[in-house]
């Protein structure tokens, strides 16, 4: 696994890429407390979030007015939240908990990266 892949999975996990969803009071659990199904659901949701981010990135870069940029960011964030809510087996809160856990727990990061490699479409 390359550093690029690790960074890609981390970027996907935190994928509310234009501005994190407020996660006040959300505490990351121990990596061992998440089962394979939860990790799979997280990665599938992260891949959906990445699709939204990728769709909005060129539009955001092309926007010349700050108000337009802020509107696009808001729209993207709403679609990212919707993508997570539409994912099977995970809530937005759980998504954020797992995302937080992967940031601080190398074991969790490794598990997510492994699942990401398994489930991500080939480039």
From TrEMBL:
Key word Endoplasmic reticulum present = no
Q: Which UniProt keywords apply?
A: Coiled coil, Signal
Signal peptide interval: 1-24
The record's InterPro entries line, in alphabetical order, gives: DUF4168
What start-end ranges are recorded for coiled-coil regions in this protein?
A: 66-93
User: Start and end of every DUF4168 domain?
Assistant: 36-112
Asked whether the UniProt record includes ATP-binding among its keywords, one would answer no
Protein name, as recorded: DUF4168 domain-containing protein
**Organism in which the protein naturally occurs:** Halovulum dunhuangense
């Amino acid at each position: 696994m390359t550093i690029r892949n690790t960074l890609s999975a981390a970027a996907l996990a935190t994928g509310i890429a234009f501005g994190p969803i407020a996660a006040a009071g959300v505490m990351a659990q121990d990596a061992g407390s998440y089962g394979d199904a939860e990790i799979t659901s997280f990665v599938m949701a992260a891949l959906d979030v990445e699709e939204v981010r990728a769709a909005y990135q060129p539009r955001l870069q092309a926007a010349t007015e700050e108000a337009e940029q802020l509107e696009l960011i808001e729209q993207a964030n709403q679609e990212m939240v919707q993508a997570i809510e539409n994912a099977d087996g995970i809530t937005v809160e759980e998504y954020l908990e797992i995302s937080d856990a992967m940031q601080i727990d190398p074991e969790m990061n490794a598990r997510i990266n492994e699942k990401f490699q398994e489930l991500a479409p080939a480039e």
